[in-house]
Amino acid sequence: MYRIILSADDLARIRVAGTVGASIEAIFAMATVRKNSAEYFRAWRQQIRQLTDQERSPLRRLKPSLLRTSQILGIWTNGGTLASLGQHIPAPLRADVTDAVRDFCRIAVEPHWHSIRSQLEEDQDALRNMMSSHGIEALLNSLGPRIRWNAPVLEIDSEESGELCPSGGGLLLSPSLFLQDPAELLLKSGSATSGPTLILPSHPDLRFVRPLQLGSGTALAAPPAEEPLVALVGRTRAAALHALHESCSSGELADRLGISAAAVSQHTTILRGAGLIATRRARNRAEHTLTSLGRHLLRGEGERAVPTPRLERDAVRLAAQ
């Protein structure tokens, strides 16, 4: 069992992210291929097994003793898990594991990353809605049947064991499409004392989504072309919307886009006026976040999710600026 002891400062700094990235998803996907549970992945699992059933398969390059997800995570994150703290991993073995993760990510995750991220953003929205509507306690009590909130301790059922005190660094919650365990815990910058990330399984509901599989016409289709969004809002503002998948300050957005602070101010003013982003100010920091309209626009769902007159009005106004 993992025990995360959360202080008042930690509770005040709980955040929700959309994803920890394609590479971490690939590590969980590697474990999913080897399991026969989860009907959602059955067709996908069969196809991936066929793709990797070759002499140089990335899965075959991993020794059986290293197929535990926690060990691969520890190698990939350079010791950024409780289970891997203090472990010595030989350099050649690290190279084999990292090469296998990269190869598998390229085969099984990257071709569908846009759609995978969209699914995870739905979970992110659900977690945020729970927190904003019912509070932190309700959020922590809703993380899964094998995660328990016994204030001030968050208990997570796991084959591994450990105890962590973020010491005011807070806790980042992030969903995963492929994670099959109750949760996984990643440490920030390899430290056991600051800002851990708790990764939670998505558990797609087959009553509302089709089973995951590769190929055209599936639940995870190829990403839509970006050009319609560029034509609608302009290339820089389209890049800003993509950059704001994860909230950031004006300075951080300037760094991500490679533009000046003045240009960021101009573009965020326009995007905020169109209802695509929201800005929250705290002292000298302006934090920008995508609104529901902005997220739907990125997902190509604007016409279904937003009344047409408003969408047309915003498009005309944006095109004129």
TrEMBL record:
Q: Which CDD domains match?
A: HTH_ARSR
Asked whether the keyword DNA-binding is assigned, the reply is: yes
Q: Which domain of life is it from?
A: Bacteria
The HTH arsR-type domain covers 227-303
Q: Which Gene3D superfamilies match?
A: Winged helix-like DNA-binding domain superfamily/Winged helix DNA-binding domain
> Which keywords are on file for this protein?
DNA-binding, Transcription, Transcription regulation
How is this protein named in the record? Winged helix-turn-helix domain-containing protein
Lineage here is:
Bacteria, Bacillati, Actinomycetota, Actinomycetes, Kitasatosporales
